[in-house]
Predict the structure.
Amino acid sequence: MSGWSFTGSHSEELQAVFLEELEFCDAEREQFLLHRCQKSPELLQQVRELLNAGDRPSILDQQLPEAVLAQSLLAGGMAQARFGHWQVRRLLGHGGMGSVYLAEQEQPVQRLAALKLIQLGQESDESLWRFQQEQQVLARLSHPHIAGLIDAAVQPSGVSWLAMEYVDGRQLTDWCRARGCDLRERLRLFLQCCEAVRHAHQNAIIHRDLKPSNILVADTREGPMVKVIDFGIARILDESQDSQRTPSRRTRAGFLPGTPQYMSPEQLCGEIPVDIRTDVYSLGVVLYVLLTGGEPYISENRGSSLSRMSLLQAVLDQDPALPSQRVLQQSSAGGADETARLLARRLRGNLDAIVLKAMARERERRYQSVAELMSDLQCHLSDRPILARPDSWWYRLRRRILRNRGLVSALAAVFLALSIGILLADRQRQRAVDSEMRLKLRNYCADLLLASLALDDGDTANAVAALDRQRETSDARELDSLEFRLLSYLSAARVNQWRQNKRHFITAV
C-alpha cells in the first residue's frame, strides 16, 4: 500500500471509487465494482489491490513483548508479570516517568520490594538515562533513612526495572496529622529526613524533588522511621559522572524536573546550575507545610493552586507569610480557635526564623548546608541560641534560662520560699507592732479617762499619776493632743489651787 499515492486525475478517480465501494457490504461490493469499472479493467484491478492491502495484517497489529507486558499490567493481570525473582502483586503508584508496583520475592528469601518500571510510552533517551542514573544514585547510598536499592536488571524484551526497599508507610504530613503529633515530634521526624538528605549530599547527590509524598514514615519496633524515596531526577555532582551525559541525554527544552511548589527559585528559573542549597530550600518548604499544614505560596482563590508562571513570580517578588501568621490566617477562615493561637505562639520566634532562612530567595542567605539547618533545629529543641536569629543579650539570656530549666526552677523556688518567709515574718512583725500600738492607744485612752474622772471627783493625785504614766510611754504626737493638754492644764490648775489653799491655810493657822 505504500506504493500508492492519490495524485493526478486517474488517482482522483481511483480514490473516489475506493471510497464509494466502502459504503457497500461484502455481498454488494463486487457487483458495484463490476458496474462502476466496466469501462476500465485497470481501475478495477487497482481498487481490488487496495481492498486486499487493507485486509492484510499490519506490523501495528503484532504484539510486541512490551505491549504484552503493558496489557497484562493494565488489564489487572499483574500476578502474571515476573521480573527476575520478583513477581508483581499490585500497583503502588505512578510517577512522572515510571510506575511502581509491589513485588514479592520467594526465592532464595521471601521479601517485598517496590518494583519501578519506566512509564509506558516514555522510553526516550532522556528517561532511559534518568532511569540508569537513579540506579547509580541508589547504589551509592546506604542509609537507614533512605529506601535502598535491592536489585536491578533489563528484561530480554528490553524493559528496564529496579527493585527498591518497600516502605509500608504514609507520607510525612499525613502520618503526623493522623497521629496528632506535636511540634517536637514533627521536628524530630523532620530531622531524620535531614539526615538522609545530608548523607546524599556527602555522596555528591542532590535529590531535587523533596516533598512530603517522597518522605514516608513507617512504624517499626524502634519507633517511627522516616524513609526518603524517589531519586528519579537526582543529580550527581561529580563532574566525571556528569560528563558521561551526552547532549542527546541532557534535559530537553521546556522540561522542568521536580514539583514546582517545592522547587527553589534557581530550579524554577532553570538558568543557573543547582547545588545542595536547592535541597535546603525544598526542605524549608517541607518544614513550612509540616508546621502549618499549608503551602507558603497560595492562590487568592482558595482551593486552587498557582500556575508555574504565577508561582515563579510569587517566589521571586514576594516573601512568604511567617509560619505563625499562616496558622492564624488558615484558622481565621473557619474562626480562630485557641489551638491555632497556641500553635502560632510556639512557632513565633525561632521556628519562623529557621523556616524563612531555609527558604531565602538568594542562595547566599540560606543555610549553606543541611547540617546547618539541622544544627539550628537541634539548638531550638535544646533551647540554645540559633544561627537564624540576630544575637542579643536578652535573647541569649532567655535561651540560657530555657536550657537550664531545672537549675532556674530550683533557684526560683528557693527565692520564692525566701520571699514568702520574709513576707510572713514582716506580717508577723507588723501584727506585733499593730497590737502594741492598739495596747498603747487603749492605755492612753484609759489613763485620760481616769484622769478626767479623777479631776471631776477632786482626786488630783490620781489624775496627775495617770497623766505622768502617759508622758513616759506616749510619743510627742499623742502628748500634743488637745485632750492631753486640756487634762494636763486642769490637773496643773488644781494642783496650783491646792498649793495656794495650803499656803493660805498655813498662814491662817
